[in-house]
């Protein structure tokens, strides 16, 4: 509105009284007219139609927005390839996850295992519940604080993407799905840092009682401790349960190794429990459970590796067969019935250390391996010819599939428990990746990687996790992967 000096507002007429109306000015008198604040910008209706929301033509504005957007996002960020600059950090996109929770513990736990529970298989309801065991990595003066952790993680809600208008679930169900996560723990003292921990359940003898759950913990001091953690797991769901000091002591302390090791696996086919362990001297021992809770190791080791045994796994369908991976670059297949305690097959799978292996439970002639150079591969055991000879060079067959996407050492690898084409891989480049080997290379749609270079079409998902060391599929929650690293669990 046009401004006037105060004296112009006063004149011969008295001030307006309540209810009186001012006399409108005659044409040509500018007094009282609204000033058009857009007068200089728009001269005609045609110009108004041509201008955009900010006074510029739409084409000009859209071109600038496109140019600015390209300057901000020139390429896809790949954690294993691209580096963060000072002040930058990565955060996950919630829309890509069905379930995502993080847990930080007092001490890092670089090895863990998921415990099979009695809540049912193929679970898809939320909130989810997970039982697990882990060993801590307290070192130096704090080594006396090391412990075996038994955990129950409950109230694990799925990612909140909002409610659809057509969602038939009632409000109470929606609130239950978005419960707060709860961590419950029990701990057992350990005399040293944990290198590897694995859990095993004996077949249930009575449906009214929970199955016996055993853990084997491979320590840095080369000892192996076997615990019965059944009462500790039961205490989470049975209030008032009293755990005696005797129940927290190990059932057995195995001392057949002279050096520490990282390779360990329970047999899935021996009901009373049978344990494989491998050490840095390249020796592999078998320890069998017996009636009365006794554990008897075979003091004569299996030998054949020229360096440390990094990983070991029983065959999922042959109770006397196992495979081992070594820093000598080989994978060897053994038969425990062999009197010579020598490998039946020796295969050179890498020019660097072979850190991890995983035997497919669905297609039992497939074995996956992960090496120190970041390469992982899948092998067809039917192509591995038997015939051990200490003086013969290891076989060098061709892999069924091989990937060098990761640029640091592979730290963990595991086949999906029910899908024989899905593999989870963890690596030293701070990534956990999921792969689908069923994707065909000649599929035009599969080859489309949105312009990102050097990304295999079989790569499904990349999750960033600092210092990730070990990952496991949950056998009862489809698609659920749990991992641990220097920053905690995820």
Topology summary:
Blueprint: H1 45-50, H2 58-72, E1 111-115, E2 128-135, E3 147-156, H3 171-177, E4 182-189, E5 194-201, E6 213-219, E7 224-228, H4 230-235, E8 252-254, E9 263-266, E10 274-278, E11 284-289, E12 295-297, E13 309-314, E14 321-326, E15 330-335, E16 345-348, E17 354-359, E18 366-371, E19 376-380, E20 401-403, E21 410-415, E22 422-427, E23 431-436, H5 444-447, E24 459-464, E25 468-473, E26 481-485, E27 488-489
Antiparallel strand pairs: 1-2, 2-3, 3-4, 5-6, 6-7, 7-8, 9-10, 10-11, 11-12, 13-14, 14-15, 15-16, 17-18, 18-19, 19-20, 21-22, 22-23, 23-24, 25-26, 26-27
Straight-line N-to-C gap? 63 Å
Low-confidence segments, given as residue ranges, are: 1-39, 41-51, 70-74
Largest sheet: 4 strands, antiparallel
**Main sheet strand line-up:** 1-2-3-4
Q: Helicity, in percent?
A: under 10%
> What is the overall shape?
globular
- How confident overall, as mean pLDDT? 83
Q: Using only CA atoms, what is the Rg? A: 33 Å
What does this structure look like?
By secondary structure, the protein is mostly beta strands. Helix content is 8%, strand content 31%. Strand 26 (481-485) and strand 27 (488-489) form a beta hairpin. It is globular and about 85 Å long. Residues 1-39, 41-51 and 70-74 have low confidence and may be disordered.
């Amino acid at each position: 509105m046009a401004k006037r000096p105060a004296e112009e507002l006063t004149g011969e007429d008295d001030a307006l009284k309540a209810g009186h109306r001012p006399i409108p000015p005659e044409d040509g008198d500018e007094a009282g007219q609204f000033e058009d604040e857009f007068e200089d910008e728009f001269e005609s209706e045609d110009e108004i139609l041509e201008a955009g929301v900010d006074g510029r033509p739409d084409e000009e504005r859209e071109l600038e927005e496109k140019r600015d957007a390209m300057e901000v996002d020139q390429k896809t960020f790949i954690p294993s390839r691209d580096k963060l600059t000072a002040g930058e950090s990565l955060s996950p996109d919630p829309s890509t996850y069905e379930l995502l929770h993080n847990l930080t513990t007092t001490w890092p736990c670089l090895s863990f295992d998921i415990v099979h529970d009695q809540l049912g298989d193929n679970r898809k309801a939320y909130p989810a519940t997970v039982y697990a065991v882990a060993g801590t990595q307290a070192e130096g003066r704090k080594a006396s604080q090391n412990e075996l952790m038994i955990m129950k993680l409950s109230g694990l809600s799925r990612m909140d993407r909002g409610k659809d208008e057509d969602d038939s679930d009632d409000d109470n169900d929606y609130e239950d799905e978005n419960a707060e996560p709860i961590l419950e723990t029990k701990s057992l003292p350990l005399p040293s840092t944990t290198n590897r921990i694995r859990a095993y359940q004996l077949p249930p003898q009575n449906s009214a009682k929970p199955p016996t759950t055993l853990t084997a913990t491979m320590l840095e001091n080369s000892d192996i401790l076997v615990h019965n953690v059944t009462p500790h797991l039961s205490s989470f769901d049975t209030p008032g349960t009293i755990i005696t000091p005797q129940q927290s002591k190990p059932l057995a302390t195995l001392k057949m190794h002279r050096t520490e090791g990282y390779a360990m696996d329970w047999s899935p086919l021996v009901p009373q429990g049978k344990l494989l362990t491998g050490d840095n001297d390249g020796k592999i021992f078998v320890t069998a459970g017996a009636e009365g809770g006794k554990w008897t190791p075979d003091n004569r080791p299996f030998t054949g590796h020229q360096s440390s045994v990094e990983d070991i796994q029983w065959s999922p369908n042959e109770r006397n067969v196992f495979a081992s991976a070594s820093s000598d670059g080989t994978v060897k297949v053994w038969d425990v019935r062999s009197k010579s305690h020598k490998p039946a097959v020796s295969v050179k799978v890498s020019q660097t250390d072979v850190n991890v292996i995983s035997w497919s439970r669905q297609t039992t002639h497939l074995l996956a391996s992960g090496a120190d150079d970041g390469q992982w591969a899948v092998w067809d055991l039917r192509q591995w010819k038997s015939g051990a000879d200490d003086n013969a060079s290891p076989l060098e067959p061709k892999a069924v599939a091989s990937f060098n996407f990761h640029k640091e050492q592979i730290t963990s690898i595991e086949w999906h428990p029910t899908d024989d084409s899905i593999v989870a891989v963890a690596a030293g480049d701070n990534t956990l990746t999921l792969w689908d080997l069923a994707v065909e290379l000649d599929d035009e749609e599969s080859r489309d990687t949105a312009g990102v270079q050097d990304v295999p079409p079989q790569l499904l998902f990349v999750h960033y996790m600092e210092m990730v060391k070990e990952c496991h599929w949950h056998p009862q929650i489809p698609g659920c992967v749990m991992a641990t690293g220097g920053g905690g669990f995820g």
